[in-house]
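Format notes (please read before filing issues)

Several people have asked whether sequences and structure tokens are stored in separate files. They are not. Every record keeps both together, in the order shown below: the sequence lines, then the token lines. Line labels are part of the format and must not be stripped during preprocessing.
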Amino acid sequence: MLRLLANYEELFDGTLGDFKTDPVRLKMKKDAKSYHGRLYPISHSQLSGFKKEVERLAGLGVLERQPKSE
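Then the structure lines:
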């Protein structure tokens, strides 16, 4: 196992990788309407950890706040 981890150290260094691809553009239909579904349920015991992880990913730039979303 240690040899495998050493051979692929860049994959298992504990950081997020970078998916190198061209930017993607999504075209919406002119008559498309926004949809707001129910939130995914998270147990109260896991909520604190979930919030910390979301903040960590937002700090890394993986997630971005969208306060003015429809």
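For reference, the curators noted about this record: The chain has a mean pLDDT of 86. The two ends are 48 Å apart (CA to CA).
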